[in-house]
Amino acid sequence: MTSTSLARRLALWGPVALQMAVIFGASSLPNLDLGAVPGSPPDWIGHGVGYGLLAGLILRALAGGRLSGVTAGRAAVSATAAAVYGLSDEFHQSFVPGRFAGAADLAFDAAGALLGGLAGWVWARARRSSRSARV
Question: How many angstroms separate the CA atoms of 99 and 33, rounded?
């Protein structure tokens, strides 16, 4: 593997790994109850945003960072991969003191992942359409 291809892979997959690490780190905090903090957003927003972002980053990596690489199939794979990571993270949380694995949280993770993958696909289609309309 050349240094150029390694750098490209890191540029594509590094943000995915970083987002996964952020999610893992947040779910490793014992007794985390942001609902008790005044002005904090509802729990489902954090799940949706975190996993939507993860799906979008996976889609970007699968597409090779190119709009032309974004397909409905890759969007579905990215949403599925992010949701499966959510499942593994809920399992992980079952071992963290003061945390629990919940079906509602998993549903929020999966919904965020689905919306993230879908939003990435719709955005790429719109960008491709606007580019072809200008030509």
Answer: 9
Question: Any idea what the Cα angle at residue 8 is, between residues 81 and 62, rounded to 5°?
Answer: 25
Segment 22-36, tens digit of pLDDT = 999 999 998 766 556
CA dist 24 to 17, 52, 79, Å?
10, 15, 18
What is the rounded CA–CA span in Å between residue 108 and residue 47? Answer: 6
Domains of the chain, residue spans? 3-24+40-134
From residue 58, alpha-carbon distances to 14, 18, 133 in Å are: 10, 11, 28
pTM of the model: 0.89
Tokens of 34: 């942001």
For residues 75 and 63, the answer to whether their CB atoms sit within 8 Å is no
- Report whether 89 contacts 24 (CB < 8 A): yes
